[in-house]
Amino acid sequence: MGLESPFARRAQPAPQPCLYRFALAAALLAPVYSASADDPRMDALEQRLNQLSERVEVLEQLKRPADVPSATATKAKSGEVSWHFGDYLQGSPFSVLQHEFDRASGQVDLLLDVTGVIPDAGRWQGVVPGDAVPIRLIARLADSSTTPPIAFELNRGARFEAGSRLHVMAWLDPVTASGARMLQIEHVEPKDRGANTP
C-alpha cells in the first residue's frame, strides 16, 4: 500500500463559502423531508431552502462582473470603435443619449437630447427627415488615415427646443466601416459648410 502524497490533498480546491453553507443547509433539511409529507414544518423549511438557493445565485452573479472589465462591454456595444464628440454634442446645446455603429452596414446612429437654445437654430428650422443637419462624421481608419466629412441626416424629430429628442444618422461604406477605429462627431461650422450641409 503506497503512501498518499501530501500534495494531493493540497491540490483539492477549498469549497466556496456560500456553496458550503447551501450544502450544509440541504444536509440538515434532508431528514425532515424524509419524515412526513404532512409535517407543517416542511413548508417553512422548504421556503428557507429556496431563500438560501436564491442568495447563492445572487452572490454568484455579483462576482461575475468583477472578472470582466466594464470597458470591454462598452466597446462591444459600440462596434469596437472609440467615439469622440465635439463641444456641440457634450451637454449644450445637445447631449448624446445613445450612439450605435453597425460595422456591417456602416450605419451610425445618434439619439440627441436638446438641452438648451441652439446657437445656430436657423440652420435647423425647416429641416425634415432625410435632410442634412449641421453635424458631421469623420472616421479614422486602422492606417491612421481619415475619411472626408460625412453629413448626418435627420431621421426622426420635428422640434428643436429644449427637451426635444432627435435621431440622426450617417453612413460609411462597408469597406471603410470594416477598418474604422475611431468615429469623430462634430459640429459643422458655417465656414465649413459643404454642398450637402445646411
What can you tell me about this protein's structure?
The protein has 198 residues and is an alpha+beta fold. Helices cover 30% and strands 27% of the residues. It contains 5 helices and 7 strands. Strands 1-7-4-5-6-3-2 form a 7-stranded mixed beta sheet. β4 and β5 form a beta hairpin. α2 runs antiparallel to α3. The protein starts with 5 loop residues before the first helix and ends in an 11-residue tail after the last strand. 14% of the residues are buried. About 14% of the residues have low confidence.
- Provide a count of the helices: 5
* Strand segment tally: 7
Helix content range: 25-40%
How do the strands line up in the largest sheet? Answer: 1-7-4-5-6-3-2
Cα(first) to Cα(last) distance is 90 Å
**Segments where pLDDT lies below 50 for 5+ residues?**
5-12, 61-79
Computed over alpha carbons, the radius of gyration is 29 Å
Compute the average pLDDT: 76
Q: What overall geometry do the principal axes of the alpha carbons give?
A: elongated
- Look at the helices and sheets and give the structural class: alpha+beta
**Beta fraction of the residues?**
25-35%
Main sheet specs: 7 strands, mixed
Q: Sketch the topology as an H/E string, one letter per element.
A: HHHHEEEEEEHE
